[in-house]
Amino acid sequence: MSTATERTPVDVAAQSMFARVIAGVDGSDAGYEAARQAARLVAANGWLELFTAVYLIEANLAAWSAPRIRAKLEREATEAVCFGAAIAGPHARSCLVSGPPLQSLMRELEKKQATLAVVGTHGHSRLSEIMIGGVAGELLHSAPCSVCIARRPATDALFPRAIVAGCDGSPESEAAVAVARHLADRFSASLSVVTALGGKDVDQRRARALGAVTVEGHPVEALVEAGNDADIVIVGSRGLHGIKALGSVSERVAHQSTCSVVVVRASDY
User: I need a labelling partner for 84 at 20 to 30 A (CA). Which of 23, 142, 149, 207 fits?
Assistant: First the structure.
């Protein structure tokens, strides 16, 4: 492991990515998994916030009895964030707001200058649609920071035991590899750096210098397959937002992977 004097700016940025973490909690198992993984990943000297947004206007538009559903949703939201805090530990702070889930979370990420957003993936219940659920895809397109899509690992106590990093030799993939190495060192986890030869503009020389093993095929399929035996796949993002991000490697890996995926924002480096 590198000493402090040997760390490059990319190494320092990789470590700082876990300094200010916000996890979306919605009362679902997926939300609680996000809280659990966020508590595991946050730096020892960093902070973790569990965030829930309740959109009461949407409940009213759905023709629910306003007073009754307001009380129900606020009670369930409070219970959800409290249970999430119990999972995350005593050092996690909580934040419950009223407003559209995605917009509220985006404002919170910007306001707190978060370095990592953690959310789960799940089916859409009425409550999870009104609270934080259903925003994972939008975060991948528009979040101002790196994003972790949390999925349940094989063994909670050992998370993360195995890490995969995607590398095409670009600066963005170098940042992803630096984050993967930081986590592997921190948790004594195994690390595989994978370069898929079917990707565009692959710099094989630089990828080999970063310790990558080359495999045939498209990067999405290669990384999803590698992730079947891992707890986290880490990929870089070229900073695309909105419609331009649709279909990107990072977005497709995040949606298709069977394990957690961390998308490292290029703007963070």
Answer: 142
